[in-house]
């Protein structure tokens, strides 16, 4: 029997309390419900209220009322103070957030606490500084005797849809700039992982955000998500998820031509040149994929290794895989990786492994499910892979790394860019000129050189091609949640 970290009293009370929708500062129960599963054991964890179209209407109305009322009447400094206070509360309750994400997502508790919660607080603090710095401009127009200036205004009500791989962090990536720009929010968390978003809504009230500024409505994507994306009272949709769902979001948004930003799938290329610091490159390339159990749009899933060092890199990767521990997110003996999110996802991941093997790839680590309970997949490394195999072309979203050799720079640039996706790419080299050239020529929204996965609230993040459009974080994120008004004066 695995020894588990005891639940904090606040977590026990939260799970026992009404896991209702958070709308207009109140808790709304519904006829339908969602059973949330603990992926570490494959057993029911709790039941939460399920929003449908009617509840989306209620939440949008509550957000509109808050936006037109107390939220818009606050000064920038007052908004800043409340966002900053929310950051402080997230920091203070990091252990609670860590347990909630470890329970319904399965990621190791220490990671959920020390990475996801900590970076969420950091993100909120960064955007807390923005309300007093959102400025229009005076335009030197060529029309005689006219004065022209611009105002940067909020969109109004923003519908935000967060994924299950980083339940708290991805929600905050959207919530923080939307609040900083002065909007009110209807947030739909992923139905698999609604707990931390619901808890965050309660903290928002404690931080002094007016009732209705942050509404959280768990629900099914094809129901609540579709209703939110198509709602005429929503002026902006921010979505993170699959490319297929992103297309449906765009179609649903056409009714009132709302603003849309999309952070979608990826199949990132990670390139190791023969002159790289191999010790750092091997460890970096390993965790570029296996970090967060491969459940990341930026996972370095296609590892291209220059032929002279290919065997050495493969050997190093296999050694690292052999030392990785896999187990429940709330285990007292902390593990490196938890389960994948669901039984369905486990079957998808193992299906890709089987597909690669059937097409001629060789498995040098992992290869399938771990244990009979929970949704665990062993860290898997495939070699003998070609660019045309499904495992090398399609997003797996799980702990499967494909390693492919290459010979020269021109070849690997062409192969790395031969994908529908363009979210991230990386390279490992000590040649500064080569690094600069590849940073220009690789078609991806983020390029990491001799590192992987670094983000900061001040630096823009987003994709090209079918990895989406719009940029989260930094000044670009403020632009996502704002609109410019031009004013002419005689």
Automatic annotation (TrEMBL):
SUPFAM superfamilies: ALDH-like. The active site is at residue 263. Coiled coil: none annotated. It comes from the Bacteria. InterPro entries: Ald_DH/histidinol_DH (IPR016161), Ald_DH_C (IPR016163), Ald_DH_CS_CYS (IPR016160), Ald_DH_CS_GLU (IPR029510), Ald_DH_N (IPR016162), Aldehyde_DH_dom (IPR015590). Keywords: Oxidoreductase. Residues 32-487 form the Aldehyde dehydrogenase domain. PANTHER family: ALDEHYDE DEHYDROGENASE-RELATED (PTHR11699). Belongs to the aldehyde dehydrogenase family. This is Aldehyde dehydrogenase family protein. It comes from Hoeflea poritis.
């Amino acid at each position: 029997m695995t020894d588990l970290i005891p639940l904090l009293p606040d977590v026990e009370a939260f799970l026992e309390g009404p896991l209702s929708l958070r709308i207009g500062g109140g808790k709304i129960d519904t006829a339908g419900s969602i059973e949330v599963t603990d992926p570490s054991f494959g057993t029911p964890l709790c039941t939460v209220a399920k929003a449908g179209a009617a509840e989306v209407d209620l939440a949008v109305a509550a957000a509109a009322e808050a936006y037109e009322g107390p939220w818009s009447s606050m000064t920038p400094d007052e908004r800043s103070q409340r966002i900053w206070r929310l950051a402080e509360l997230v920091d203070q309750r990091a252990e609670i957030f860590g347990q909630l994400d470890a329970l319904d997502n399965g990621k190791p508790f220490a990671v959920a606490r020390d990475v996801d919660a900590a970076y969420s607080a950091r993100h909120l603090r960064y955007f807390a500084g923005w309300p007093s710095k959102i400025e229009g401009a005076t335009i030197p127009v060529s029309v005689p005797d006219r004065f022209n200036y611009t105002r940067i205004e909020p969109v109004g009500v923003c519908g935000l849809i967060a994924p299950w791989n980083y339940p708290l962090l991805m929600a905050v990536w959207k919530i923080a700039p939307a609040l900083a720009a002065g909007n009110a929010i209807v947030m739909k968390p992923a139905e698999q992982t609604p707990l931390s978003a619901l808890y965050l809504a309660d903290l928002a009230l404690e931080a002094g955000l007016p009732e209705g500024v942050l509404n959280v409505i768990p629900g099914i994507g094809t129901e609540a998500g579709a209703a939110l994306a198509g709602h005429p009272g929503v002026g902006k949709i921010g979505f993170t998820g699959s490319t297929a769902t992103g297309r449906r979001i765009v179609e649903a948004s056409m009714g009132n031509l709302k603003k849309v930003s999309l952070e979608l799938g990826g199949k990132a290329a990670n390139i190791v040149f023969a002159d790289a610091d191999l010790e750092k490159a091997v460890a970096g390339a390993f965790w570029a994929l296996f970090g967060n159990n491969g459940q990341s749009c930026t996972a370095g899933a296609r590892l291209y290794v220059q032929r002279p060092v290919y065997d050495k890199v493969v050997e190093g990767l296999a050694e690292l895989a052999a030392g990785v521990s896999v187990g429940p997110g709330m285990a007292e003996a902390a593990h490196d990786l938890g389960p994948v999110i669901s039984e369905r996802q486990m079957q998808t991941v193992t299906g890709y492994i089987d597909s690669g093997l059937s097409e001629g790839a060789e498995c040098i680590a992992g290869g399938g499910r771990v244990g009979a309970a929970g949704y665990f997949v062993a860290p898997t490394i495939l070699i003998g892979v070609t660019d045309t195999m499904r495992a090398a072309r399609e997003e797996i979203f799980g702990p499967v790394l494909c390693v492919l050799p290459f010979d020269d720079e021109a070849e690997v640039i062409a192969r790395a860019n031969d994908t529908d996706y363009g979210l991230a790419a990386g390279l490992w080299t000590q040649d500064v000129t080569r690094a600069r050239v590849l940073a220009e020529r690789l078609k991806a929204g983020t390029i990491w050189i001799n590192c992987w996965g670094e983000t900061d609230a001040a630096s823009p993040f987003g994709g090209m091609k079918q990895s989406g459009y719009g940029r989260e974080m930094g000044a670009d994120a403020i632009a996502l949640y704002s609109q410019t008004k031009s004013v002419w004066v005689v």
